[in-house]
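pls design
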């Protein structure tokens, strides 16, 4: 993990937050001074408390703008994902 400055972290919104294995994963690495961009799938709860829960767990880590999408994806997911990646300077 030390070789990465930017981390894309994907997970489903379970009961208004990230699943516990996601928290176990991020807690097992030193992510200080890293930039994390979460992308979250959901049924209807968007992010819930997942972004703020990650921020509390990862103090010293930049949590960037998240990307959310419903489990079914929808016809605009590809376009919206491309815009999100460009807006956050993850891709050209």
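designed seq:
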């Amino acid at each position: 993990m030390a070789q990465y400055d930017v981390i894309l972290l994907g997970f489903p919104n379970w009961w208004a937050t990230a699943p516990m294995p996601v928290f176990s994963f991020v807690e097992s690495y030193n992510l200080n001074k890293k930039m994390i961009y979460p992308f979250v799938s959901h049924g209807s709860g968007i992010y819930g408390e997942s972004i703020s829960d990650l921020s509390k767990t990862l103090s010293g880590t930049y949590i960037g703008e998240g990307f959310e999408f419903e489990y079914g994806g929808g016809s605009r997911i590809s376009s919206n994902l491309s815009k999100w990646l460009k807006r956050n300077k993850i891709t050209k």
